[in-house]
Amino acid sequence: MGVGVGQILSRIENVMPKLTQSEQKVARFVLESPEEAMLMSVQEMASRSLSSSASVVRFCRSIGLKGFPELKVALSADLAQGQKSGYFDLNKNENTAEIVDKILSNVIQSLKDTVGQLDVEMIEKVAHSLYMAPVIFAYGIGASALVAEDIAQKWLRMGKNVYAFHDIHVLTMSMANAPKGSVFIGISYSAATREVLELMKFAQKSGLTTVSFTGFGRSELSDISDFNLFTSLAPEAKVRSAATSSKHSQFFIVDVLYYAYASININDSIDKITRTRKATNELKNLPET
């Protein structure tokens, strides 16, 4: 997984709850003293964080890095870029201008963090799986259901058979008879939505190619999926305002995946988009009855 410039400190903050206790010791030290950490050896960091060299290495891998040298490079990039925008929660009696500023900051930071952990190779693999798939299924609950519908709308424009059923029983019946090579995309920002997890297991058992679409970090859902798409993990807030930050990040990943898919055969993609646009424009010109 590639490392974006200037995003590693935010990633460490957000993934902290998913780390083991020994890894959290390393994480806290890095967050408190990034300038020192950038110049240390593995052994020095283990000593200063009251952990072990093995914990330092595991910590690096848990936050999506290949090893300790990559952590030092990422810290250097973070410190060179300066202070990040940050995440902010809403407070009592705030005026609308302050709310606008906070939501804008949250969205910008979420997108920056998502780009920072974006795995381009994984995007390309998923795009090719979707390109070859005879049928695509997408499922999520709540805000994630909106993401599933966005996937369905985009790939319908590309001429794919794609479904985002809300009824889990109808979706299960459809997947049970899906042709070989079909793809199931399970969307859960928390990676803990029971229905998504159960559908992922069923899709695997039914021979579908599976894609998990979650917040960053290892989970049971990502472990059982063929491919993983990750967005940034924003800190928990008292007022989540319909999961605004996570939703923007998820839509951003869908857009990246959509354009990666379209680029596989750009002439065919343009032709399909043109035809669907023409069809919808004709509906707008229907005479009133």
3D architecture notes:
By secondary structure, this protein is α/β, with parallel strands linked by helices. The protein folds into 2 domains: 8-81, Arc Repressor Mutant, subunit A; 120-280, Glucose-6-phosphate isomerase like protein, domain 1 (Rossmann fold, 3-Layer(aba) Sandwich). It is built from 14 helices and 5 strands. It has helices at 8-15, 21-32, 34-37, 42-48, 53-62, 68-81, 96-116, 120-132, 143-157, 168-176, 194-205, 220-223, 244-264, 266-284; strands at 135-139, 161-163, 183-188, 209-215, 227-231. The protein has a 5-stranded parallel beta sheet, with helices on both faces. Helix 7 (96-116) crosses helix 13 (244-264) and helix 9 packs parallel to helix 13 (244-264). The radius of gyration is 21 Å and the shape is globular.
Quote the beta fraction.
5-15%
Characterize the largest beta sheet: strand count, sense, and whether it forms a barrel. Answer: 5 strands, parallel
Q: What is the multimeric organization of the chains shown?
A: single chain
Number of helices: 14
Task: Give the tally of β-strands.
Answer: 5
Rg, rounded, reads 21 Å
Strand order of the largest sheet: 2-1-3-4-5
What would the CATH topology of the largest domain be?
Answer: Rossmann fold
Helix content: 55-70%
Q: How would you spell out the order of helices and strands?
A: HHHHHHHHEHEHEHEHEHH
Structural class: alpha/beta
Query: What would CATH call the homologous superfamily of the largest domain?
Result: Glucose-6-phosphate isomerase like protein, domain 1
As for the number of domains, it is: 2
CATH class of the largest domain: Alpha Beta
* Shape, principal axes of CA atoms: globular
Q: Show unreliable segments.
A: 1-6, 238-242
Residue-averaged pLDDT: 85
GO biological process, one term: carbohydrate derivative metabolic process
Protein name: RpiR family transcriptional regulator
Keywords: DNA-binding, Transcription, Transcription regulation
GO molecular function: carbohydrate derivative binding; DNA binding; DNA-binding transcription factor activity
